[in-house]
Amino acid sequence: MLISLSLSAQVTDRELFDAYQHEDMSVWKEYVDSNDKRLTTNDLLYEYGYCGYIVAEAKKEGQEALLPQAKRYVARFRQHVEAQKGTLPVGHYEMYMSAVYVYELRLKESIHPFKSMSLAKEATKLAPKDPVVLSYYGTCLFYAPKPFGSKSEALEWFEAAQARFGGDEWKYSWLREANEMYIKQCREKLKK
């Protein structure tokens, strides 16, 4: 067990990116499970992504047995975000708390859709050039029902993020790739 944890602590962004591309979230689970002590900004990005994955899986028909696990991951993510409040990049606390409220809503743990959207919008005001924040807000608009959401408005936010995801630091970023996927989906939906 100790060998597994020490190996997972050495997983690179490239390996996590490859796992994302191959839809092998077991690699992410192992990484997230091993990061309880580190909790860097990068670790929170993966924890945020894994929570989105496990919540979506738990909501699938026949996968209800995953609900307790999803609830534990979301509760732990909330604790980690709150513990890092003063050290996160500008706008990330609001973005992550917005995500927590979305996950809790999907799991029927709380009902805060307006607060979630408000926090997401606040994050864009605090960090108007941060591609992570811009892409997150696009995601909120993409999934929100009308009149709160809009695929055309989401596309604008995704494109704004795309313009800022160009640096080498984003080469192996699952967020950059997810952003590109959402751009394609928005364009396809808007053609119809």
Strand content: under 5%
Count of helical stretches: 10
Helix fraction, binned, reads over 70%
Classification by helices and strands: mainly alpha
Rg calculated over all Cα atoms: 16 Å
Ends: how far apart? 51 Å
Q: Main beta sheet, described?
A: none
Describe the overall structure.
- The chain has 192 residues and is mostly helical.
- The protein contains ten helices and no strands.
- Helix content is 71%, strand content 0%.
- Mean pLDDT is 89; it is low at 1-9.
Structure summary:
With 192 residues, this protein is mainly alpha-helical. It has helices at 2-9, 13-21, 25-34, 41-58, 67-83, 92-106, 113-126, 131-143, 151-164, 174-191.
Identify the notable features of this structure and list them briefly.
71% helix, 192 residues, mainly alpha
Secondary-structure topology with pairs:
Layout: H1 2-9, H2 13-21, H3 25-34, H4 41-58, H5 67-83, H6 92-106, H7 113-126, H8 131-143, H9 151-164, H10 174-191
Helix pairs in contact: 1-3, 2-3, 3-4, 4-5, 4-6, 5-6, 6-7, 7-8, 8-9, 8-10, 9-10
